[in-house]
Amino acid sequence: MLFSLAILFGSLYGDRLMALSGETRSALKLYTEMVSVAHRHYGAEVKYKDLVYASINGMLRTLDPHTNFLPAEAYDSMKERQQSSFYGLGILVGMRDGRLTVVTPVEGTPASRLGIRAGDVISLIEGESTAGMGINEAVRRLKGPKGTTVHISIQRHGLDELLEMDIVRDEIPQNTISYAFMIAPETGYIMLTDFSRATAREMSDALASLKEQGMERLLLDLRSNGGGLLDQAIEVGDQFLSQGLRIVETHGRINSSHQTFDADGSFDQLGLPVVVLVGGATASAAEILAGAIQDHDLGLIVGTPTWGKGLVQTVYGLNFGNGLALTTAKYYTPSGRLIQRDYSSWYEYARHGNVSVDGDPMALDGEIQESYSTDLGRPVYGGGGITPDFIVEPAEVDPFLQYLISRNAFFNYAVEFNNRTPVEDRSWAPAADTLERFESWLSAEELATSEDLDEAITNEMIRMDVKRRIHAEVLGAAFGLQERFKVLATADEQILEALDRFEQADELLTARLELAESEAARSTSLSGSPLN
Asked: Domain containing 141 — which CATH number?
């Protein structure tokens, strides 16, 4: 086993192992001896691999929250997430009431062509029950090489027997733009949830499509974007920033970690008023994009302070298919703001304890943040993450509604509704007796009594929200998640606030363009004319 440990250390240190100092070699000798003694004498059986992996994780924990050892399975999963596609069936699945349930089929994929519907329960995969199977394990079994076949057994509401299906796996696009549509007259909306290999192309295509539909301003939603590939964040930034403007800088311990990334003009600049939505789940590459737009006064930021993940991870492949995501630098916005939030307390960091106080963009944990300036001289604030220009908290969900949501009441009702009376028109809306029908269904399913619902819907806002969620889920079950989202967006307070800020975003962009023209004229004047 000591030989195996030597191989492991060799994968970490490479040819430099023999050049280590005597002190370091002594420390490694002590480590291998400790592992050997623990394996021989511990009071219960323990594997060498478990001891080594645990010690690696313990070592990395002394560095920062984002340096991570990636066992082979996690390393493969990370690489797959960064690809533009994978091979599978084309369904979004989730656990509903402990059952593997189709949330929606992806249009144009094998699943949609075979008629798989939202609400279908996948009971068996290759004859093995999915009861008790974790979601990750189920997804792994559904995926596979292109052209191979997987047999699934589906339980569909209203049918006594299982539907048996043999589905040939095909290439499934792994889109990072979840939704792109016209949310209001002349206003485009894009929800970007990740940065993977094809994100820049997706963004370019979405912007072109929305412009063809008459887009004159853009609402960019990064609230659920946890980051991804830096090069894709740079290419997306290039679509918002004019050539030569700084997108981000990195600084670290060694010279190679000091880099600057500027827009290089590979894409046409958007040149339209922009409002960007951010929140506590906005992190890393998404913070880079939001910070660059804010620092260069190309758009306004609305929402709540972002996560504050500004550590650069370089991923190294190790022996045996493992990987190491090692922090090598930190991200800084064009104005010089460090994106990374303080992590001296890992507890506070994990629970995102650094939050704004009373909606004041200058206050974080009750302390005044360090101030920086945008190109136009507007104050922006550091201290970790991106602080919005306008802080808007998401609305609280009524406890009774939260109870129904947690039990999939709206989703399940919508599935049954579509099974009884399929909705074929996107203009469908709930009828006058919708609440009474929903109340009867809740009672039959023993999810709530008539008294519970009657008491809840005496509040007009709750009554409207119940009808809205039924509306959204019925359209979602019939036409996919974008139609569901369109309905819910009509009552999203952060989206509504963002839409109200476009006049100011337009004024900001006008001032930014005037500044650029002034700088260009001054540069021409200083350069002078060549003498004859």
From this structure: 2.30.42.10
